[in-house]
Amino acid sequence: MSDATKYSDSVCLVQLTDSHLFSDTRQSLLGIDTLASLNAVIDLVQEQCPQIDLVLATGDITQDGSTGGYYSFIEAVSRLASPCHWIPGNHDNALLMNELGREKGLVHPWVDVGNWRVVLLDSSVAGEVWGRLDPDQLQQLDEALATVQERHVLVCLHHHPVAIGSDWMEPLGLRNAAELWQRLDRHPQVRGVLWGHIHQQLEQQRGQLRLMASPSTCVQFAVGSSDFATDDLAPGYRWLRLYDDGRMESDIARLPAGSFTPQADASGY
Q: What's residue 3's pLDDT?
């Protein structure tokens, strides 16, 4: 991805998700120093993606909803020298994120980059682990789709809008996913849906829609588990290359095997 002339008809996006930072930078999550793992992932992004058009932070920026945690993220991601936009997850303080994000230019209902519109939806519900798109977020989506013109669309949120084959996580997804699909299925410009929350890689297809979830920058969850279970896979990120003609390339990249392994007896977080 380092040859700029090769990609003159496309843009490069990077997704960072579920960093779970703390106000106290010495604090860890299930034995993982989440700030150190985030910075290690950002080092990897710098090595592999020298030219980035947009960074997407798709929720659970912090574990404790703290001002300090958000400023730690802002400092870390500023090393990428590209615009970053964030949305809250269930561990976040959405009101505080909105306040800080507007001050720092991190909050936008959507952003146009290249021949694409990236729509950023808040699926968090205060005090709940599961997610929902409130009427204001559905209206935001409607407005974004109504004014998209000839652009292609990527929709981002925190919670999973489809079944992922994990019993303990199924009730913790997007509770009104049907209202999302009713809208997206009517708009052929929508090419993909991207989320975090599940701390694992997932790729599905829904008609023309590419559905994608991505590893956390810290703890990984075991795929297909009935009960809470972590995985020894290393933290990582997702890159996306969005072409002017609507094509999309995407994959995940991880730190070396054995990096930032969670404690073996973890039963929840």
A: 36
- Rounded average pLDDT over 56-66: 98
135-174, pLDDT tens digit by residue?
999 999 999 999 999 999 999 999 999 999 999 999 999 9
Structural domain includes residue 58: yes
Integer angstrom CA distances of residue 249 from 73, 105, 167, 190, 244:
27, 27, 30, 15, 12
- The mean of the pLDDT values for the chain is 94
User: What CATH number is given to the structural domain containing 111?
Assistant: 3.60.21.10
Phi, psi of 171 (to 5 degrees): -75, -5
Rg (CA), the chain: 17
Q: How far is residue 174 from each of residues 20, 124, 171, measured CA to CA in Å? A: 20, 9, 8
6 found inside a domain? no
Output the CA torsion 87→206→116→113 (10° steps): 30
Range of the structural domain that residue 141 is part of: 11-254
* pLDDT for res 265: 74
Reference 106, options 198, 40, 16; nearest CA is: 16
**Chain CA centroid to CA 93, Å:** 16
Kindly state the tokens that stand for 237.
């990120």
Number of domains in the chain: 1
Which tokens is 247 given?
């094509």
* Cβ atoms of residues 238 and 212 within 8 Å: yes
Predicted confidence band of residue 255 (pLDDT cuts 50, 70, 90)? very high
